[in-house]
Amino acid sequence: MEKRLLTLAAVLFAMAAVVPEVSAKRWLVGKMGWTTQVNYTLWAQDLHFYNGDWLYFVYDRNQMNVLEVNKADYESCNADHPLKNWTRGAGRDVVPLNVTRDYYFVSGRGFCFGGMKLALRVENLPPPPVQKASPVIKTTDAPSTILCRRPGVRPAVFAIGALWDAFVRLWQ
């Protein structure tokens, strides 16, 4: 039994070494949460929201709410026909930004007119920076050899080896 647990731990560790980094971010809306007397346009203007990020709204649930609306309702502070009511009752609501598009949020009950509205654009993640090709290293002692210097290759090789070893041990 202990051998199987060690094998499972080795497999999970190897898989974790190979899994790419997740880049989603959870944004607390506003500096002090979803409240009055905050200009959310200024708060969001220098931020970049990407597909997979989350908005975290913290507010007084007895007075305020979080409503997703269209652009026209956002501009006129009309909360009568929201596209989605994200208010879940605890005053701690999370909104997934899982579609690349413009999002519009308001707080109903008159708070939108006091500035409680947020417009933002969700973009796809930019591509990773292009790495320069690694130079080919030749030695004079041996036949022409190309050494792979790309980051992540060695950990991937070791992870595959560990997975294979765990697989073989598991079925012995």
UniProtKB/TrEMBL annotation:
Annotated function: May act as a carbohydrate transporter.
Look up the record and report any one GO term of the cellular component aspect: plasma membrane
- Please indicate which superkingdom the organism of origin belongs to: Eukaryota
Q: Which SUPFAM superfamilies match?
A: Cupredoxins
What's the protein called, per UniProt?
Phytocyanin domain-containing protein
Keyword terms, alphabetized: Disulfide bond, Glycoprotein, Signal
Tell me what organism the protein belongs to. Answer: Linum tenue
Which family, according to UniProt?
Belongs to the early nodulin-like (ENODL) family.
What's the short name of a Pfam family annotated to this entry?
Cu_bind_like
Specify the signal sequence span. Answer: 1-24
**InterPro entries this protein is in?**
Cupredoxin (IPR008972), Phytocyanin-like (IPR039391), Phytocyanin_dom (IPR003245)
Q: Which residues form the Phytocyanin domain?
A: 25-124
UniProt feature coiled coil, ranges? none
Molecular function (Gene Ontology), one example: electron transfer activity
